[in-house]
Each structure stands twice: as C-alpha cells, then as structure tokens.
C-alpha cells in the first residue's frame, strides 16, 4: 500500500520506554500509521476506513478516540500526552488478531 509513503511513525512494537507502559503494542495487538497525505495516506480518511473492520477495537487520531465497544458515542476527545496528530493508532481485538482476511485498505491504490 502506498509505496512512497512516509513510515516514520509506523510500527507494531514500541521502543524500550514505550514497552514499559501498558500498551496494546506490547502484545502485538496494535499498529501505528504515519499521516502522509502527499503520498496517499491521509489519516483523516484512514481513521474512518479502519473502523469498517470488525477486528478493530479502537482508533486514536488527531486528539480524538473512537472505541468500537461504545460506537454510539462516536469520536470523543482524547487527552493523552501524545495527541496523535502525526500518526494514528489502531488497536485490534486480541481474540480476532489471527484472522488473516484482507484489511479494508489492502487493495487501495495510492
Ligand atoms: Zn500506537
């Protein structure tokens, strides 16, 4: 997907400091995607797109969080220290993580 995109904040596992904190990344149940609209990855769009997948538990993007377990509340303010304005965070339901069907963005052209 989007071969020329910026991958600066992409990742599954956090760095050493991050691994000391409680995080879905430490269990391999989360990934980050770098916001790079010039190269096809506009997280304003992707944050909504990933929510179409039933494996996603919550998304943090641009100082907002969407938890699929309380979808009726929609996007709510996120007050974490990192506002996630340069990358979005996607957490996956642990019980569904091994389902290998394609993600909604797998066939997107950039
Ligand atoms: Zn993250």
UniProtKB/TrEMBL annotation:
- Where are the annotated segments for Disordered? 1-33
Task: Report domain ARB-07466-like C-terminal positions.
Answer: 16-88
Q: Which domain of life is it from?
A: Bacteria
Basic and acidic residues: bias regions: 1-10
Record-linked Pfam families: VldE
Q: What is this protein called?
A: ARB-07466-like C-terminal domain-containing protein
């Amino acid at each position: 997907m989007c071969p020329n995109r910026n991958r600066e904040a992409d990742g599954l596992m956090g760095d050493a400091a991050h691994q000391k904190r409680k995080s879905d990344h430490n269990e391999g149940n989360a990934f980050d995607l770098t916001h790079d609209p010039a190269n096809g990855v506009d997280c304003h769009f992707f944050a909504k797109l990933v929510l179409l997948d039933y494996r996603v538990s919550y998304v943090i993007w641009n100082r907002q969080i969407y938890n699929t377990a309380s979808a009726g509340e929609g996007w709510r303010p996120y007050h974490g220290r990192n506002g996630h304005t340069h990358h979005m965070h996607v957490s996956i339901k642990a019980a569904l993580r091994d389902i290998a069907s394609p993600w909604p963005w797998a066939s997107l052209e950039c």
